[in-house]
Amino acid sequence: MATINTNFLKLKAGYLFPEIARRVKAYSDAHPGAAPRIIRCGIGDVTEALPQAVVEAMHEGVDEMACRNTFKGYGPEQGYEFLRQAIVDHQFADLGIAADEVFVSDGSKCDTGNILDIFGKGNVIAITDPVYPVYVDTNVMAGNTGEADANGAYGGLLYLPCTAANGFVAEVPHQRADLIYLCFPNNPTGAVATRAQLEAWVAYARANDSIILFDAAYEAFVRDPAVPRSIFEIEGARECAIEFRSFSKNGGFTGVRCAYVVIPKSLTGSDGQGGRVSLHQLWSRRHSTKFNGASYPVQKAAAAVFSPEGKAQVAALVEHYMGNAKLLREAVAAVGLPVFGGVNAPYVWVGCPAGLSSWDMFDKMLQEAQVVITPGSGFGSAGEGYFRISAFNSRANVEEVCRRLTALVSA
Ligand SMILES: *Cc1c(COP(=O)(O)O)cnc(C)c1O
User: For the structural domain made of 8-50+309-410, what CATH number should be given?
Assistant: First the structure.
């Protein structure tokens, strides 16, 4: 008899995005006339074409594969040196990160989930609320939680509420935590942490011998020069942090797949018997055992993000999406709803009109304005009363969303 991992049975049935898709489909089926009007600002996926420099590099990579003399089979599991070096030179210059501390992968979603392979049982896991659901669900699958309560909060997790009162940046808790998930710029709230706030987290992690899992997927959208883009800008982070980065949102690689993890060699964890073990060494073993490298054309394409042309083209993409965010922020503010985010992040986080829950607002936007947003409560109970609008869209769609939102909320 093959038994199953019963932790999966603790997962809540309706993962947020399938539930959104279900409601959108039900509405479209019932109102075929209105269906073509639907504008999707729900799931956080990019919409614009790949930068030209990326496309050219990917073509070159494919051409090399087409010729026996330049063909490449399995690459290094950790990623090609040319890409790891480019990452260090262009993203971590002066931060003391070496190319062999970078592990290239096919996505940050996988990396943030897979990282649990190298950590033991019984760790206290701190998770912000609201949160990117992947951190929670992968801990459930790994057996690091109890059952979910009526609000969907899992026993055994230490939830860190992010509210308007703390600017959606979790304060360091009074309890000890072993693993702490932080995501800045934040999905879903669009909040960023100041240097002082990250310093407090690094000090906490060092004092408690904990590890910060820092998701910097939206680093490219930071515009304020005072806002740190990497946890490694904070003194002491090399002893307590792992950083996740992705080409998905800056280079538009959501359908291409390339990301990386930075694990300093100075980082260690306890073996539970008084010994310390290098996390870099463990991840290296894990990565090379369970992963055979991102494809060569994709890694070539990723490196092109750092060419002068690539950088300019990525900057233009970021400019486009952040121009959308600005329009959305202005439209929301003009109708008098509380608005957060959208300044250093491509997400605008909005307080629902009085008396409406997150899903009420979702249904209202879908049925009366044919706009798909993401209900804040889907990211955690502290997200109740909010909704997220993604700035990943064409300018024309965003302008139309602004018009419809204005008409809907003013009515
Ligand atoms: C989009 C996103 C990522 C990137 O995921 P990929 O698997 O690399 O596409 C990582 N973290 C968060 C919070 C995200 O929203």
Answer: 3.90.1150.10
